[in-house]
Amino acid sequence: MDTKGIDQLLTQMNAAAAIAGGNSEAAPAEGAANFADALKGAIDQVNNAQQTSDKLAQDFQLGKPDANVQDVMISLQKASISFQTMVQVRNKLVAAYQDVMNMQV
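Above: the chain sequence. Below: its structure as tokens.
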């Protein structure tokens, strides 16, 4: 996965934590990515990896000469790992949301 998007996400989360802590000077930088855009980009990357692995697997099943089993297996593993990572990030986001919603103001 692209670490640039993850770095931008971490920068935004740190800025939001600083603002929540009362440090309003730590606003996000002008060039910082929007959280929704970073999340959508990550989901799009996972989707592209899955589509690519499905296409390679289909080509291999059809017996196309340029498809080999090594590329298919590597592609399937990459898609699986990226999907599992996305699920874990989603779980962390849901847990964080629940923690925020359970806070007493």
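The longest helix spans residues 69-101.
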